[in-house]
Structures are given as structure tokens and as C-alpha cells.
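Appendix B. Worked example

We walk through a single record from start to finish. Start with the input: the chain for Sulfite reductase (NADPH) hemoprotein beta-component, Jhaorihella thermophila, length 108.
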Amino acid sequence: MKRAFTPKVVTASDLFEGDVIYLTADDRWSRQLEEAEVITDEAHAQLRLLFAEAQQNRVVGAYLAEVAIGPNGPEPTHFREEFRRSGPSNYFHGKQQARQQSSQQPRA
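Next comes the structure step. The output line below is what the pipeline stores for this chain.
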């Protein structure tokens, strides 16, 4: 029995900077998962993946990642995707530094 298709996003690594990026509905690449196009149709997902894979001058390693629909948009359902979204784990810089700083800000 075939498994039901679950929501996905197209993700890859930026060829020049190495960051994790996500394909948006308007064909841009974003570093924010919240901006990613959530795909709920398997045929459409395959077309979007082919579109991403054809951009060899911009991205590397494009694939479909499973997501859940959260209050602020797509959220990872697997620890690997959460890990990729937060950036390198060897020291705080880039996304990790920004998240750490924003979590230390006093809340109103």
C-alpha cells in the first residue's frame, strides 16, 4: 500500500555560501523556512524539485523535505531538517548567533 503524500518543501544548499535555502512559491530561494512553498501534491512536488535541480549554477543537493504546517508556516518534522535550519553546530555564527541574540532580548 502506498503511503499518503505529506506536505513537503524543496530545500538545497546555496552553491556559493553553503547555507540551507528553501524554494518559495514565486521561484526565489530563501534562507527562511517560513517563506518556503509548502507542496501538498506529489506531482507538483516532483515538478518543483526538477525546477530546483536545474539551477546547478545556484544550488546543490536539492531534495524534498517533509514539513508540518505550524502557526508561522512550515516547520520541520525530522531532527535533520531542524539541525540544517539552525546552521552549523561547531560555533555560534550566522543563524545561530541571530537566534541566540533574539532569544536574549527582553520581551514586551
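Two observations about the output. Residues 42-53 form the longest helix (12 residues). The first strand starts at residue 8 and ends at 14.
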